[in-house]
Specification:
Blueprint: E1 3-8, E2 17-18, E3 21-26, E4 29-32, E5 35-38, H1 45-54, E6 60-62, H2 66-73, E7 78-83, H3 91-105, E8 110-115, H4 121-135, H5 140-151, E9 154-160, H6 164-168, H7 174-182, E10 185-191, E11 197-204, H8 206-219, E12 227-231, H9 235-248, E13 254-258, H10 261-267, E14 272-277
Parallel strand pairs: 1-3, 1-7, 7-8, 12-13
Antiparallel strand pairs: 2-3, 4-5, 4-6, 9-10, 9-14, 10-11, 12-14
Pfam families: DegV
Protein name: DegV family protein
InterPro entries: DegV, DegV_C, DegV_domain_contain
Length: about 280
């Protein structure tokens, strides 16, 4: 029996396995100055970041096509899909449509689509949980039940240092974005239950961000559990976030990963995403 874990590229996982289980990345696309950047192993992130910095035009993303999902599904008997939040992207809907088509042709195949209601490290933690369950030889239904329960224990907070891209796309006032950059104002946010992003607080300079970020984690139930931190070319400050966490929770299990293109697009240069178990 062939089993696959499939994530869209919002999970920042480009490897072909997760804890020994087969993994496939289905990339989203980002359009900058009429150039299409496919979020896969071939992308040059440094060039991608520079393209975001240089553009003065509105940018956009495109979810994976149904054909891309069908190609990823091919040959498997059990398929577990984790998508970026449906509150931000049509990727979940695209995956559902593909799954319905695939099951019409191959009715024996079992497919579950998990809406992460988040992005980045929180998606990856869900995918890793699926892999752990498969390594324990849980049945398809047991995996689904366990993962859905596990999702309820996860949360994510983040720090944004640059909001130029958000301004270009009409998400915030361009004047505010420029002023924030000028006075070194950083945004601390979180993911809502509906899978949308919400502002928690602001801080001038990164040193003031760290304790506020930790307090936001504690306010949302963090008590020393597993943490995964993704960053956009900012390992040094991601490590300072980790140090702030371990100063209060010395036994916290913390790991780091780089953002691929999609999360880089949303978090922007220097951004930090922190997912944790409550």
């Amino acid at each position: 029996m062939i089993k696959k874990i499939i994530t869209d590229s919002g999970a920042n996982i480009l490897s072909s396995t997760i804890l020994g289980q087969k993994h496939i990345n289905v990339p989203l696309s980002i359009i900058i100055d009429n150039n299409i950047w496919l979020d896969d192993n071939n992308i040059n992130i440094d060039n991608f970041i520079q393209a975001i910095i240089n553009t003065k035009q509105k940018t956009s993303t495109a979810c994976p096509s149904i054909a891309s999902w069908l190609q990823a599904f091919a040959g498997a008997d059990e398929i577990y899909v984790v998508t970026i939040t449906s509150g931000l992207s049509a990727t979940y809907d695209s995956a559902i449509q593909a799954a319905n088509l695939y099951k019409e042709k191959y009715p024996h195949v079992k497919i579950e689509i998990f809406d992460s209601l988040s992005a980045g490290p929180q998606m990856r933690m869900i995918a890793e949980r699926i892999a752990q369950d498969l390594n324990k030889n849980l049945t398809f239904d047991e995996v689904i039940e366990d993962v859905k329960q596990y999702q309820q224990t996860l949360q994510m907070v983040f720090i944004l240092k640059d909001m130029k891209n958000l301004a270009n796309n009409g998400r915030i006032n361009p004047t505010i974005a420029k002023l924030s950059k000028l006075v070194n104002l950083n945004i601390i946010g979180t993911v809502t239950d509906a899978g949308t992003f919400a502002l928690i607080s602001k801080a001038r300079g990164m040193k003031k961000c760290y304790p506020k970020l930790l307090q936001a984690m504690i306010d949302q139930g963090y008590n020393g559990g597993k943490v995964e931190i993704d960053h956009v070319n900012n390992l040094s400050e991601a490590q300072l976030v980790a140090s702030t966490i371990t100063s209060t929770f010395p036994n916290a299990d913390i790991s780091f990963s780089l953002c691929t293109a999609l999360c880089t697009f949303y978090a922007e240069n220097g951004g930090i995403l922190v997912s944790f178990e409550k």
